[in-house]
Amino acid sequence: MCEPEIEPRSKTASKQWIERMRYYLQVDPAGCQVAVGEDGGVIGFAMSQNRGDVWYLATYGVLTRYQGQGIGKRLMDAALAHADGRPGLFSSTVHPAATRRYRLAGFTLHPQMRMVGTVDRSTLPAVSGLREGRADDFEWMDRLDERLRGAGHGPDHAYMLERLRLVVSDDPGRPGYVYIDEEQGRGVLLAAAEPRTAQDLLWEALAASRGDTLVNCVTTANHWAVDVGLAARLDIGQEGYLAVRGMAEPTPYLASGHFL
Ligand SMILES: CC(C)(COP(=O)(O)OP(=O)(O)OC[C@H]1O[C@@H](n2cnc3c(N)ncnc32)[C@H](O)[C@@H]1OP(=O)(O)O)[C@@H](O)C(=O)NCCC(=O)NCCS
Questions:
Q1: Domain 114-239+249-254, CATH
Q2: Domain locations along the chain
Q3: Dihedral, CA atoms, 254, 256, 259, 260, nearest 10 degrees?
Q4: pTM of structure
Q5: Most buried one in 16, 26, 31, 202, CB count within 10 A?
Q6: Which residues line ligand 1 (CB under 6 A)?
Q7: CA angle, 146 then 187 then 250, to 5°
Q8: Distance from the CA of 72 to the center of ligand 1, in angstroms?
């Protein structure tokens, strides 16, 4: 999710956040904008990235005491100038100032569901036709990304593979992949050519969970994921929006909050 700066992060999460910001700065520095106060300190930021023909917003925020003064609008305008008309997407909070900004900038807001709970392991089906993914899978994964969201993740795949487990469909006729965060026991990005493969990949991610898990960024076009979550006895709630411009909501697809 495009991250609000409200609750202080844990030490580990802060470290990961800083690492990710460094990465965005390295790959596409022109998409990274900060607002600076009179004393020279950073009071707001919009970190966005172009990957081929797609733009995404990774994180966006203005310090609370500076909000509502037009700083967010200037940051968003700069980020969108960087997009240069590319289709774009990001996962948004429900913050009223944020959603106002996004709709005024022409984004369609697709409500997202999230499913939480502990997987009832007796419901886990035997899934076949999957294997561990490798860097030489990136080429077809990017082609699949292009079909689903207009452009591949490009270098983001390598960044994710260094930190996450990648599971892919072994059948080139029905491609799909999921990244699994084994620390948190959940899938963080899932893409497939058709819903059945997507469901198999989500089951694999659920099988990797320990204790409470989370399936998020589920838009209404992705009810295939709701069916898996319900079968695993997770509970459905609502959480923010997938904001898209110049594209349909991707499906079968569960976006990554960080790399969309
Ligand atoms: C979203 C955010 C970055 C916008 O920055 P900002 O400097 O407050 O934005 P602006 O002042 O340029 O614009 C906010 C707009 O929302 C309106 N607004 C502000 N607070 C509002 C509120 N509580 N309810 C409704 N509208 C509100 C403002 O009037 C303004 O609209 P206008 O320009 O048409 O009058 C900032 O509010 C923020 O950091 N929010 C918390 C973190 C967050 O949710 N980030 C987004 C993650 S996806």
A1: 3.40.630.90
A2: 11-110, 114-239+249-254
A3: 40
A4: 0.94
A5: 202
A6: 2, 4-5, 60-62, 67-73, 92-93, 95-98, 100-101
A7: 30
A8: 6
CB 173 within 8 A of CB 196: no
61 phi, psi to nearest 5 deg: -165, 155
* Centre of ligand 1 from the C-alpha of residue 96, in Å: 6
Segment 228-257, tens digit of pLDDT: 999 999 999 999 999 999 999 999 999 999
CA Rg, the chain, in Å?
18
CA atoms of 100 and 230, how far apart (whole Å): 32
Domain 11-110 classification at class level? alpha beta
DSSP 3-state of 128: coil
Pairing state of beta strands 212-219 and 235-245? unpaired
Taking the centre of ligand 1 as the mean of its atom positions, its distance from the CA of residue 204, in whole angstroms, is 39
CA of 29 from ligand 1 middle (Å) equals 24
Span 77-115, pLDDT tens digits: 999 999 999 999 999 999 999 999 999 999 999 999 999
Residues 153, 142: contact at Cβ < 8 Å? yes
